[in-house]
Amino acid sequence: MVVLDKSRRVVIKLSGKVFSGEDGSEIKRYASMLANLSSSAKVQPVVVAGGGRVARHYINIARGFGLDEASLDIMGIEVSRLNAKLLIAALGEKAYPAVPEDLEQVTEAAASGKIVVAGGLHPGQSTNATSALIAEKVGAARFVNATDVDGIYDSDPRKNKGARHYSEITTKQCRDLLSGESSMAGGYDLMDIVALKVIERSKIPTVVIKSEPEVIRDVVLKNKAAGTKIIVGA
Amino acid sequence: MVVLDKSRRVVIKLSGKVFSGEDGSEIKRYASMLANLSSSAKVQPVVVAGGGRVARHYINIARGFGLDEASLDIMGIEVSRLNAKLLIAALGEKAYPAVPEDLEQVTEAAASGKIVVAGGLHPGQSTNATSALIAEKVGAARFVNATDVDGIYDSDPRKNKGARHYSEITTKQCRDLLSGESSMAGGYDLMDIVALKVIERSKIPTVVIKSEPEVIRDVVLKNKAAGTKIIVGA
Amino acid sequence: MVVLDKSRRVVIKLSGKVFSGEDGSEIKRYASMLANLSSSAKVQPVVVAGGGRVARHYINIARGFGLDEASLDIMGIEVSRLNAKLLIAALGEKAYPAVPEDLEQVTEAAASGKIVVAGGLHPGQSTNATSALIAEKVGAARFVNATDVDGIYDSDPRKNKGARHYSEITTKQCRDLLSGESSMAGGYDLMDIVALKVIERSKIPTVVIKSEPEVIRDVVLKNKAAGTKIIVGA
Amino acid sequence: MVVLDKSRRVVIKLSGKVFSGEDGSEIKRYASMLANLSSSAKVQPVVVAGGGRVARHYINIARGFGLDEASLDIMGIEVSRLNAKLLIAALGEKAYPAVPEDLEQVTEAAASGKIVVAGGLHPGQSTNATSALIAEKVGAARFVNATDVDGIYDSDPRKNKGARHYSEITTKQCRDLLSGESSMAGGYDLMDIVALKVIERSKIPTVVIKSEPEVIRDVVLKNKAAGTKIIVGA
Amino acid sequence: MVVLDKSRRVVIKLSGKVFSGEDGSEIKRYASMLANLSSSAKVQPVVVAGGGRVARHYINIARGFGLDEASLDIMGIEVSRLNAKLLIAALGEKAYPAVPEDLEQVTEAAASGKIVVAGGLHPGQSTNATSALIAEKVGAARFVNATDVDGIYDSDPRKNKGARHYSEITTKQCRDLLSGESSMAGGYDLMDIVALKVIERSKIPTVVIKSEPEVIRDVVLKNKAAGTKIIVGA
Amino acid sequence: MVVLDKSRRVVIKLSGKVFSGEDGSEIKRYASMLANLSSSAKVQPVVVAGGGRVARHYINIARGFGLDEASLDIMGIEVSRLNAKLLIAALGEKAYPAVPEDLEQVTEAAASGKIVVAGGLHPGQSTNATSALIAEKVGAARFVNATDVDGIYDSDPRKNKGARHYSEITTKQCRDLLSGESSMAGGYDLMDIVALKVIERSKIPTVVIKSEPEVIRDVVLKNKAAGTKIIVGA
Prior knowledge:
Uridylate_kinase (chains A, B, C, D, E, F)
C-alpha cells in the first residue's frame, strides 16, 4: 500500500457542468489536468463530481411526479456517481477504480495513493458539504471548489453586473451572504452553510474558483491567486 | 403479506424509449396503464425498464475513453435503475418502493403484491434476457416484450420495407433469425438468444408487441392478437 | 403489510439526555408514552434518538487522540443507534425490531405501521437535520423536536435569564438566530440550518418543545400550545 | 499494490469435473500447474471454477421439488464458489484469499497480482459466458476454456465416432454449430452463444482444450497448438 | 405482517443426515411433516439444517490442503445453507423463501409466520449452539434436537452396547458427560457446551430425539415422551 | 501488499477494563506499547477489544426491558467495536483503519501488515473464544489473553485468598476448573470452553496474563514467564 503524505491530498469539487456536454471532450480535458497534477507534482487529487444536466433531468421529472425531496437528492447522488465513473474511465490506471459511497470507502480509496473520484454521499447534503467532509476525513491540505463563476460575489454576478467580487472572504461574511439561499435538490451553489461549518471546525484552507482545467492546475500547483480564498473566522 | 396467485403475474419489458423523453409525460401514460392493469384486472405487473437515451449517452462517452464492455453494461444497468425509479415515482403507492437488484430481491418485491419495477440485473445480459429470467423466477403467466416495432420480422422493418411480419414464430425460427445480431452494450433488440433459451426451458408464454400503453393493456387483459407470439419448439 | 395513512406519522426527535441516565427508568417513561400514542390515537411515531452522554464520552476521548471530526460524527451515530435499540427493547412488540440506517430503510420500517426508532444516519448531519429529512421522506404530518429547553429563545436561556421565548418563529428568524452556532460533533442544539432548509423546502409543520413525555403527548394528540412553533417563511 | 501488466492475465475456465473427485488429488494437480504458471512465467491466472458433480446433485433434487430454473442456476453458482474455495485452499499464499462474486470484485482481486479463483457470477449465465465477461473486464490476453473434450467438433465426439475436430473455427461457424444446444441449468457445455458474443465484441483470443494440467500449461506458456482456436469473424 | 404468538415457535435442529441421501426422498418426508405441523397445529417450525455428507466432503478435502479450522467451519455453514435451500424448495409456499444468515435475519424471517429454514450462522459454533441461540432470539417455546440416536446416553451407544439412556438429564450432568468431546469442524454431536449454556441462561425447554418425521411430530404436537428431556439445573 | 510472516502475528485480547476509564489515558498507554511492539520487534499485533463498563451499562438496561440474551450479546459486540475504534484512533497510522466484523475481514485486515483491532464478532461467543478463532484464522504464533488477574487460579482469587495460581495448566485441567462458569452476556471471564476447544484443535500457544502494557510487552517480546501458560492436552 502506497501511503502518501496526507498533506499532499487536495479535494477538488467539480461542478456538474463538466459532465453536461453531449460528448466526453470536456471530461477528457479535466482528466488530463488531473493526471498531470497526479504525476508531475506529487499531489493526490480527491475529486467530487456534481450531478449536472442529467441529474436535473431526473430530478425535474420525478419532482413532477410528487417524489419527496430526500428521494430526489438520492437520484442526484446516483447521477453524480455515474459522472464519477466517466471521469474514472477517462483517467484509466491513474484513478482508483471504484466510486466510494461513504466516508469510510473514501478513506480506503485514498489510501491507494491514486486519484479518487467520488460523487455525492448523502441525501440532504450538497456536493460542497460532502467535499468539505471528505477534505476533513482524508486530512486534505486544501479544498478547491471549482464552480461556474470565478469566486464569491456579494450578489449573483450572472444577474447583477455590479456584483462585487471578493478575493478573500471570512467564513462569517460567507454565512451572511448565503443565508438567503434556497436548497431545493439540484439548486445548491458555491458554498453552503454545512460546508462552511465543516471548513471552520477543521480549519480547511479553501478556495472558490472558476472551473477551468488551467485555473485548477495553477491554484493547486502554484497557489496562484484566482477566485476567492475563504478565511476561517469572523 | 399479500400472496397473489403467481399466475396473475405478467412480466412487461419496457423499451428504454419510454424513458427517453425530455419530460415525464410518456412515463406518466405508461404508469396510468399499469396502475389500471393492477387495480381493475387483478394482474400484478412486474416491469423491467430499459436504459434508453441516457444509457446510450453514458455508454458512448465511456466507450470513447476505452472502458471495457462489461463495465459499460454496468453503466447501462445503473441508468435503467434510475428509469425504474421514475416509473415507481409516477406509480406512487401502487408500486413496490425499491428497485430490486437481483433475482432474490425481485422475488421479495413481488411477494408484496404491488407493481414491481426493476432495471437491468447483470452485466452481459440484455434486459430481454433479464426479463425472461424474472418471468421464470416469479412464475409469471406471461412475458410481454414491448419494443419499438410491432413484432418480429424476418429483417429489420425500419430498413427493409418488404420485411415479413410473423404473427407467430417458433423459438427455433427466432434463433435462426437472430443468430447474426451483434451485442455491443446498448445495441440489444427484440429477443436475444439467452432470452429465447430461458423461454424454452421454462415454457413461458411470450409476445413481442409495439410499445404503446393501449397495446400492452389489450394484450394483458384481453389476450388480443397483436405483435408476434412466440411458440416454444422447433 | 399494514399501510397507515402517511398523515398519521409524526417524527419525534428525542434528545440524547433521555438515554443518559444510569438506569433505564427514563427510557421506560418515554416508551410508555410512545406506546400509548401508538395505540390510543392511531398516531405512528417515528423517533430519532440522540447520542447523549455516552456519545460525548467516546467523542471526547477520540478527539483527544486527534480523530477527524467526520469520524467523530460516525461514532456519535453509532452510539445513537445503541440508544435506539434500548428504546426498541423497551417498546417490545410495538416497535419495528431493527434500527434503520438510511432513508430507504426508514421508509421500509415505516411501512410496517409500527413505531420506528432510528438514530443518526449520516456524518456531518445533526440528528435535527436527520429528523427533518426523515419527516420529509416518510411524509410526516409533523416534526416534534423535543429538547432540553422549552422552545426557542433569542439567546441561551440557561445562561441568560432575560432571554426571550418565542411561541412562534419564522424559519427566517430562526436562521438569523442560529447563524452563530458552532458545529463541533456533539454540540448541535435545537434547530440547525440544514434542518431549517428541509423544513422550508417541504413545508413540514414543526414544533420545538421541552422533552417530557406528557408534553410530547399533549402536542401530538391535542396540538396543545407548548414550546415554539416554527412558521415557514420570512 | 502490485500492478501486473494486464496482458499477462489469462482467464482459465476449469470444468466442474476437476472438482468432482472423492478426494482432492485432482485439484492438487491443477493447483501445482497454476502455481507454476504464476511463478515461473509471470502469467497471472484468473480461474473460473465450474460446479460439477455436487452442483448436479443439488440441482437435480431441487428441480424435482419444482424449484424454478433461475433459482437452480443460483444453487449451481454457490457450489461452484465452494469449488473455488477448495482450489484457493490448495494454492495457499499464491491465491487471492476470497472468491469474488461480481465483476467489480474480480477486478479488485486481479489488482492483487495473485491467482484469482472465481465461481459463477450470475444466474442465467454459463460459466463459459462468465469467463468471457471476466476476460473482458480484466483485459485478459487470452481465454482458455478447459473442457472434457479436446476441442470443438461438428457433433458430440462422445456419441459420434466420425465427428470432425476443428483446429480453428470462426465464431460464426461456432454459432451455427451450437445453435441447437439446450440450456437447462447444469447442462452447458463448451462455448455458448453469450460467450461467443463477448469474445466477438472484445476480440478475445480464445482456445478450447482438453482439461489436463499439462495441456493448459503448454497452451499458456508455449501457445502450443492443442484443441481448437476460435477466430473472431465470419 | 402475520404476528404469530411467539410461544408457538419450535426450533427443530435437523441432522445433516437428512440431506445426505442421493435423492430428495428423505427431505420430502421431513417437508411433509413440517408442512403438516405448520398447518394443522398452529406451530411455527424454525428449522436449522446441518451440513451432512457434502459438508464433510468439502471439509475433508480442504483440511487436507491445510485450510485453517475456522475457514472449514465456514465451508460447513455454506453447505448447510444449500441444504436449507433444498428443504425450502420442498416446502414451497409454506416456507419463508430465503435462508437467514444471522440472528437478525432469523427474527425477520420468523415474523412472516411461515416455516423458517436456516443453516449454520457463525464459524466456531455448532448447529446445536446456533439452534439454541435461535431459540433464544425468537422466543421459542421449545428446542427439539433431532439427531442420529434416540437421546443422550452415558457413552456412545453406537460403540458401547451397555450405554445407559437418559429419559431426563440435567444440564449439569450433560456438561459432565460431554466435557471430553472434541470439536474438529464436522465432528459436533448432540448437545455441546455452548448450546447447554444458552439453554441454561434462557431456560429453554429442550429435547434430544431420534430424527424421524413421526418422532418429531409426536414430540411437537403431543409432547409425547421420546428421547431425552434436558432439565435446566444441577 | 506487505505480506508479513504469519508466525509474527500475535493475537492479544484486551479486557474491556482498558476501555472503561473516564478519559483515554489508559487506552493511550496500551496504544504506545502496541505501536512499540509493532515497530521495534516485527511483531504484528492482532487485538481483540472487550466491551467493559459501557457494554455492561447497555446490557443491564436492555436486560431489564426483557431483551433476549442473544440480542444483548449483539449490543455488547457493538460497544466492543466502538472501543476498538478508540484504540485505532490512538494508534493512528500504525493501525488498519477499519474494525473487521467477521473472520474474513480479519484476514483481509491482517494482510495489510498493520496492527489490527477487532471487537466481538458473533453473538453467543465470548471475546476469548473470538480471539482464539482469530488466532486460528490468521495463523497466529501466539494468543495472549490479558485479563484482570495474573493468570488462572483454582478459584476466584478476588474472593478466595488461598486460591492456587497455576504457572502452567493443561487444557483438560482448565476445562475441569471452568465447567461451573455461567454465561450470562457480559459475564465471561478468562478462558471459556469454546476458546479452549479452539486452542486444542489448532494447538495455539496461549498465555493468560494480567493486563498491563509492560507485562504484555515482556510476554510478547521476551516470552518472559508471567501469568499462566496453557498446555494443550490432558
